[in-house]
Task: structure prediction
Amino acid sequence: MKKAWGLMATVLLLGGVIGCGAKETAAPASGGEPAKAASGGSAAAEENKGAAATSIESETLKKAIEQGYIKVGFANEKPYAYKDKDGKLTGEAVEIARNILTKLGVKEMRGELTEFGSLIGGLKAKRFDMITAGMYINPERAKEVVFADPEYSIGEGLAVKKGNPKKLHSYEDIKKDSSVKIAVMAGAAEEGYLKKNGVKEDQISIVPDQPSAIAALQSGRVDAITMTGPSLQAMLESAQDDNIERVMDFKQPVIDGKSVRGYGATAFRKEDQAFRDAFTEELNKMKKSGELLKIIQPFGFTEQELPGDMTAEELSKPAQ
Result:
């Protein structure tokens, strides 16, 4: 009888240990096995409805944690991903990925620079486990990969004389004041944006390059200059001129009913949705804490380039 009671106690104890183990390993970031359906219709099994699919989706992250490294494909494009003068891989996307992967329990990120056009193909062929660097979320790409929520947004930037004497906060403001002159680099998309927003051709001064735009503003030949946000920020920091400044509350232009702002993110294979979810969860924590801004600032990004509350789900929807 004592042996029977002892056997029953042992079975109950083992059952309790197994049940606890199922709850503990539910989060892929913990470094344990992905959650599995527990026997007996437990609450954990109910919460993880569709466990068979989830276990497949979590496999990439689980493997990376166990083997100690993960393969990441980056587009070779500054400031997103590039090698510095010492040969170290760095950039906005690189440092975000490295930070989040460390939080998820992956010890080493093995990054590879490649052509932008090779990223999605390399991901689907399992040459890479995730891809990033300058890739905007859009419905067409979302047919082939799953995106985490955006890490940054890129729109247009506007710089003016200190104090913004003409009170310019949008391309619309430039249109309304025919005395305003604005410099744009030859061949840049901004010329078309300005014209579609009603800015007259005689208000637009075409310059050969970005340094020439800065020089035109400094000399007073123009009242404003425009280019993409990070490019403008980099040029202003290089100029180190307190007499010119960026318009931080600049309203993004709308072209053909759509904002020109793009949102960049990390992408994963379709079957790696649980990995994507874990990555997004850590990213959103960084947004709220201010850590994300600290990481991207050294690469020319400011609060203007933060993605706000925009989600991958919203950006992946086909146009109506």
